[in-house]
Write the C-alpha cells for this entry.
Amino acid sequence: MMGSWINYQFVGVTKDDQSGYSTLCLISFICSFIGFALLPLIPLRKDIRKSNRDRKEEEAVLKKESDERKAKRLADRQTNKD
C-alpha cells in the first residue's frame, strides 16, 4: 500500500511505462532498512520481567495503603459509635 502510494506520487511506473522501475527498486531497498531502526523499540525479555516485577511491587504498596485506610475508617466508625 505504501509502495503503491510512493509509486503514484513520485515515480509513476505503470504497466505501459516502466522507465522508473529502477528508481522504485532503489526506494524499496532504502525503505527496507526502516524496520531495523525500529528494533531498539522492542523491549528485551529482562526489561519486561523487571517492569512486571516493579508493577507488582507498586500494586502491593497501593493495596497495603488501601487496606490501612479502610482499617482507619473502620476504627473511626467504631470510636464514633461508642
